[in-house]
Amino acid sequence: MVQLLTQLVLLLVIFHYSIATDTLNPNQPLQDGQILVSAKEFFALGFFSPGGSKNRYVGIWYNKLQPAGQKTIVWVANRRSPLSGTNGSLELNDNGTLTISSMMFLPMPSVILSNPVAQLLDDGNFVIREANSSEFAWQSFDYPTDTLLSGMKFGWDLRTGLNRNLTSWRSNDDPSPGRYVLSMDLEGIPQVNLWSDSTKKARMGPWNGITFSNIGATKSNNGLSSAFVSNKDEVYYMYNTTGTTIVCRSIVDQSGMEKSFVWIERSGTWNNVLYFPKSQCEEYSECGPFGVCNIDVWPICRCLQGFKPKSPQEWALRDALSGCERLTTLDCKNKTDGFMTITITALPETSKAIPYPNISLNECRANCLKNCSCTAYAITNISGAGMGCIIWVTELIDMQMSSHPTQDVFVRLAAADLASISSKSSKKNRSKSMVLIIVFSTVALIFLMLFFCWRRRRG
Ligand SMILES: *[C@@H]1O[C@H](CO)[C@@H](O)[C@H](O)[C@H]1NC(C)=O
Ligand SMILES: *[C@@H]1O[C@H](CO)[C@@H](O)[C@H](O)[C@H]1NC(C)=O
Ligand SMILES: *[C@@H]1O[C@H](CO)[C@@H](O)[C@H](O)[C@H]1NC(C)=O
Ligand SMILES: *[C@@H]1O[C@H](CO)[C@@H](O)[C@H](O)[C@H]1NC(C)=O
Ligand SMILES: *[C@@H]1O[C@H](CO)[C@@H](O)[C@H](O)[C@H]1NC(C)=O
Ligand SMILES: *[C@@H]1O[C@H](CO)[C@@H](O)[C@H](O)[C@H]1NC(C)=O
Ligand SMILES: *[C@@H]1O[C@H](CO)[C@@H](O)[C@H](O)[C@H]1NC(C)=O
Ligand SMILES: *[C@@H]1O[C@H](CO)[C@@H](O)[C@H](O)[C@H]1NC(C)=O
Ligand SMILES: *[C@@H]1O[C@H](CO)[C@@H](O)[C@H](O)[C@H]1NC(C)=O
């Protein structure tokens, strides 16, 4: 009996080893219970059941990084079509398509391969290619679930219409698409938005050459590089940890947060190093049109100078969504309008903004003045394409103020409002100097008195 058991264990071990390869060949299906393991054993692919569910899914997880024995799933093949039994199998067909128990679960290449192989790579990408070629005919990186890994493109291939976005799981037990989507949206100037069903929940803002302008992250010095690519063929964001020891993943979780995790070897856990939105001011359009949100003051919403709350009753109840309206309407025809400079955290909503690459600040201003619907202009790094001009022809939405504002925006105002702002600010300056003079004289007087006292005592 014992002997039989040892034999069985031995058999199982041999069986296990014989299957722990990174490659799937046609007519050698991967059965439920077997796994593919990438060359350096970093990732594994196989069948799993999430949380308390009994449903079976094909997924990819970190082979060795399993905090408290839990798999961290980074990709799910059949998130919409689970299997009910543990009798499933993943097949690579002769023509180079993948099926799970003979069912197609994702769009597959329409080209017919003659000698296909499927391989799990060490970056977590599962690819299909001709055996004699290194070019991928299909890759799992093109069909992300809720996780962005190093080397994955987040965004668009404009030639094929492929839109790679992240969609939250429905629950811990159910990887089917939940309500939150992080996507690269191309209207106006490309920006990354977090959607809750069809409502924009938060905006990471356009890429400013270093980071997404709205997330307030500073340039990192941990070796992690990231890039934004925008040309006629592609618009995508990607980060890269190759050449570092960092293990990093970003997800959109079930509560609608974008979170980045880094593996901490010492404790064997995932550290949440970044999350978004992290404050009320990062919720989309918290203060409405022409309102500015500042998390460091109370109340957090203010109107831009030259504007007043559209609904004072609502604002009094700290509901600022209706935003602000002008004190004085613009006077475009008479050409008396001017501009007020504001310095804020990031660009206002750019989905309806118009980019003019390669023109100067003066030309930008002239372009704005020419168009009666223009409300503002700015000079900025346009999605990594270099410095350029942007004009807005709509209300200004989703503006934030922080302790390190860096983005100048020139807001169009009627002459009367500009005049009252400049007189107010010079009055403010005047009263500031008065205060300084009084403080200075008082201090001088105290010193004088002390000096005389000291003389008296000595004398
Ligand atoms: C697997 O088992 C389930 C029931 O557990 C059954 O409905 C299904 O047809 C089986 N599939 C295959 C490929 O045998
Ligand atoms: C490839 O083979 C599978 C399974 O035989 C089939 O369902 C699919 O239609 C084929 N695809 C093409 C492009 O021929
Ligand atoms: C790969 O093999 C196919 C035939 O199986 C052949 O037509 C093709 O030219 C080969 N490609 C390369 C790059 O060797
Ligand atoms: C990632 O960075 C490494 C080292 O800097 C580089 O060799 C590699 O090409 C980069 N990968 C991508 C996909 O950009
Ligand atoms: C996310 O991508 C999927 C697949 O390309 C697409 O159907 C869906 O509309 C996208 N959602 C958003 C919000 O971009
Ligand atoms: C503009 O973007 C480039 C990278 O595309 C960056 O090197 C540069 O520092 C950015 N300039 C400003 C003013 O942010
Ligand atoms: C434009 O100027 C004329 C003449 O000064 C004035 O009557 C008119 O009200 C101005 N228009 C606006 C919209 O202010
Ligand atoms: C902007 O100017 C730069 C350098 O002068 C040039 O390389 C680039 O092609 C120009 N871009 C556009 C859109 O004209
Ligand atoms: C102002 O810009 C908007 C948006 O591009 C455009 O529809 C409108 O025709 C422009 N108006 C003028 C007078 O150029």
Task: Describe it.
The protein has 459 residues and is of the alpha+beta class. It has four helices and 33 strands. The strands form nine sheets. It has a five-stranded antiparallel β-sheet. A four-stranded antiparallel β-sheet has the order 1-9-10-11, with no helix packed on it. Strands 3-4-5-6 form a four-stranded antiparallel β-sheet, with no helix packed on it. A hairpin with a 5-residue loop joins β21 (248-252) and β22. Residues 208-209, 381, 384 line the site of one 2-acetamido-2-deoxy-beta-D-glucopyranose.
Amount of beta strand? 35-45%
Put simply, the count of helices is 4
CATH superfamily of the largest domain: Bulb-type lectin domain
Shape: elongated
CATH class of the largest domain: Mainly Beta
Helix content: 10-25%
The main sheet orders its strands as: 28-33-30-31-29
Give start-end ranges of low-pLDDT stretches: 8-18
- Using only C-alpha atoms, the radius of gyration works out to 30 Å
Number of domains: 4
Quote the CATH topology of the largest domain. Answer: Agglutinin, subunit A
Mean pLDDT across the residues is 86
End-to-end separation in angstroms reads 112 Å
Secondary-structure-based class equals alpha+beta
Name given to the CATH architecture of the largest domain:
Orthogonal Prism
Transmembrane segments: 434-454
Function: Involved in sporophytic self-incompatibility system (the inability of flowering plants to achieve self-fertilization).
InterPro entries: Bulb-type_lectin_dom, Bulb-type_lectin_dom_sf, Pan_app, S_locus_glycoprot_dom, SLSG/EP1
Keywords: Disulfide bond, Membrane, Signal, Transmembrane, Transmembrane helix
